[in-house]
Amino acid sequence: MLSEPLKTKLVESGMAAWASWLDGQLTRFYDHVDHGDYPGWLDAVNRLPEISPTLSKLDSDEIQIGRATDCTERQRQATRQQLQRLIPWRKGPFNLFGLSIDAEWRSDLKWRRLQDKISPLSGRTVLDVGCGNGYYGWRMLGAGAKLVVGIDSTLKYVMQHRAVARYLPHAPFDVLPFSLGAQASGGACLVLPHNGASFDTVFSMGVIYHQRDPIKHIRELSAFLQDKGELILESLIIDEDHGNVLNPQGRYAKMRNIRSIPSITTLKNWLSAAGFTTIELANISTTTLTEQRVTEWTYHESLTNFLEPENPRLTIEGHPAPKRAIVICSKH
After folding, report:
1. What pLDDT was estimated at residue 195?
2. What does pTM read for this prediction?
3. What is the DSSP letter of 10?
């Protein structure tokens, strides 16, 4: 079930055994998917019209596949109809044959913050953990990555990627239904062991604060890195004057499953405890209503609904409003 382009590149990169193992796991998984919505999502992907794109542009803010002139208006509307069955689109933007998918997150803004800070991706192998629908993976390919393996535990996001990838069948990039650590409830994803796989660059963006054991998560990421590899980690953070770590009771900005939001000092301490010796702070930014908002491709609530109306510096629950940091780490 791995795409042939990705499988070929994994073999060329010395990960043939891992690729074979993945193939077997994915075949069994998709033969017995334990998710009631999966048949509908698969039907939406399979009903996308057959269109041959005359271009792909993966190095621009809006990932562009095809021109408007590559299809009829009827085909474009059919494409819209099927892709809307996969709402919400959290990450984007995309443009397929003149159809703009304006996702909840302007993910291009985050990419701008990090693209010139990380080691150049040209010719590198990349693992993107918690990658969502794969927006960043396409940008990684656009930056010259040799291959990208994305994993995400939300099956709908995996299917969103499959819908986009339908029109770029030669790209060495898959989003796979895996997670690190404990298996997701309901059998909706698999657990990914490294089994000898190693990558030049590993991304974990927006994942660590969901973990019961953040240091364990970092060690799991580290296991996939080559000796001189680079980890790019992004996290929600709190200011130092709010303490070392925020452990929300209940929800945070209406999000469930937020375990630990660290200060920068705490985040660096976690990385040091996991064995990283070089830790560089690349960016700190407060999430704005320009970056995260409601669109026709999302549900009816977004950041504006998650903040205290009278004091947007606080979440609706009274916690500090979302602020994020990107750190770039290595062991040398």
Report:
1. 82
2. 0.96
3. H
